[in-house]
Amino acid sequence: MKRSLTATNLAIYQHLNCDLYIHNIYNGAKGSAGTELSSSPSELTKAHYKRGLEWESVLYAWLDDSNLLLTVPQIPVEGDTLLENIFADDRNYFFIAGVTFWPPEAQLAEKFKESLSPPLHFGLAKPDLLEIRRTNDGIQWRVIDAKASQHVKVRDPALSLSERMTCSSPSKVSHHTQVYFYTLCLNFILQSPHFRGQDSAGVWLPPKDGFHTDPPSLSDISSISLPLLAPPLDTLLFRTLPRVVAQPRESVKWHFNPLCQGCRFESGCKSRVLEEGQLGVMPNISIDDSRTLKDLLRMSRVTPPIPKPLADIEELHNLFSNRHKLERLRKLSPSVVKKANQILALPKKTCRNEETKRSPLVEAAREKTILASSPLLKINGFLTLS
Ligand code: SF4
């Protein structure tokens, strides 16, 4: 099987903030994509997904009615074919829908080589729209992504339904990665003397009062400056990703957290956190929270060092059972201990003669991991993690 990534995979990777996700995708790990409804996306994420599709169809219909749309067949296209389509059209300004292309392997391989990284392979790319402006200087183009909200729109049929629905990012970074990657590739495909790539890409948002109230408007296209994105995204694409996907699976960074709902690997990761007693056994521990708790555990191992690392949950239980050690850590880094106390819902005060502190979250998680290691229960599959 040829391993590859798509721009959509990159967007999901950034949204989930999980190296294991991209490692699994690239290395062909089995997920639950075949069983699309193995996890149930929330009503909210379903609504986001539906809204994205609605906005897209409203926008395409409006462009068509405004005589601004050229639709090309969704088959992988070369620069010359696209040029023929544009030359055959007598409009000076319009948008092309349906553009599909294979990322240029040879040119991307050069970029990996410059970064001293082994090359990665990429799958078929499908930007929403290309904005075309015919000028005396040539054909100016830029990638436009239709976006109903700040949420990443995902249509890749290779993804599980729940994954498509749950790729809703609070940050724009994941969205930018997609348009940056498309533009990077198209710059190699659509070359001079005829084509002139722009320094920006566009995000087409619905009108302020909603697309059910007002029609789309060209003034709602917001520009993304690509030169600003280039340094961090080139580092991500050509340095970080090759390193992440080449790591042995056991060394890959991951944390089971609320964002995992709908990821195609959710069920495997759910079982693994239980088996390994990781922080993700506790519900609602965010990636930031897990960083704080891991910092705390790292500090606790230094004084004195633990020869063989225990499961995270067991280590936390032990640490909070040792008041003197905790006190030492508090002096060392009061902010980490304070934050960890808040995350783990520890009581603010303990009685003078009390030697231990108990976090209800840690204790509940500990019970789950102990039960999970019971061979009888494992066989009968009684356990659930929620
Ligand atoms: S379920 Fe969560 S931890 Fe597992 S691969 Fe997906 S995002 Fe990463």
Architecture overview:
The chain is of the alpha/beta class and 386 residues long. 46% of the residues lie in helices and 10% in strands. Strands 1, 2, 3, 4, 5, 6 and 7 form a 7-stranded mixed beta sheet that branches. Helix 10 (287-302) crosses helix 13 (334-343) and helix 12 (323-332) crosses helix 13. The longest helix has 23 residues, at 43-65. Bound molecules: iron/sulfur cluster. Iron/sulfur cluster binds next to helix 2 and helix 9.
Task: Name some characteristics of this structure.
seven-stranded mixed β-sheet; alpha/beta; 386 residues
Oligomer: single chain
Distance between the termini: 35 Å
Give the H and E element order: HHHEHEHEEHHEEEHHHHHHHH
On the 0-100 scale, what is the average pLDDT?
A: 85
- Outline the low-pLDDT stretches: 34-39, 151-157, 164-171, 379-383
Quick structural overview:
By secondary structure, the protein is an alpha/beta fold.
List the helices and strands and how they pair.
Blueprint (H helix, E strand, L loop, with lengths): L6 H10 L2 H8 L16 H23 L3 E3 L7 H9 L5 E5 L7 H10 L14 E7 L2 E9 L14 H6 L6 H17 L5 E3 L2 E5 L16 E5 H21 L19 H11 L10 H16 L9 H9 L2 H10 L1 H10 L16 H13 L2 H6 L6
Parallel strand pairs: 1-2, 4-5, 4-6
Antiparallel strand pairs: 2-3, 3-4, 6-7
Bound molecules: iron/sulfur cluster (SF4).
